[in-house]
Amino acid sequence: VQLQASGGGLVQPGGSLRLSCKASGFNFRLNTMAWYRQAPGKQRELVAAITSGGTTNYTNSAQGRFTISRDNIRRTLFLQMTNLEPEDTAVYYCVRPGNYWGQGTQVTVSS
After folding, report:
1. Are 5 and 47 in contact (CB under 8 A)?
2. Percentage of the chain lying above the pLDDT 90 cut
3. Which of 23, 27, 52, 83 is the most buried (most CB within 10 A)?
4. Quick one: pLDDT at residue 19?
């Protein structure tokens, strides 16, 4: 299993970013996928998840600002983030439940 996340960077408060995660080594379309994040000094936390059928769920902090989606043909998971806040600063991880984690991509929200 390989999960290659990208798309992080430095953005000002109120800005947007789109994270991508290219998956390989397993049957992507049959698996629930998720984005987690870990802020400095904090535990990792779930941000959003999407089932194989496209059902999504979000944490309260992500609801209304973030959108998780998937492209099963391209085996890619996405996280569109809008109206970013400094509290969103974290390393974001693409995750396949079963304890498969990508390497993470840094998101920094700062003016």
Report:
1. no
2. 95
3. 23
4. 98
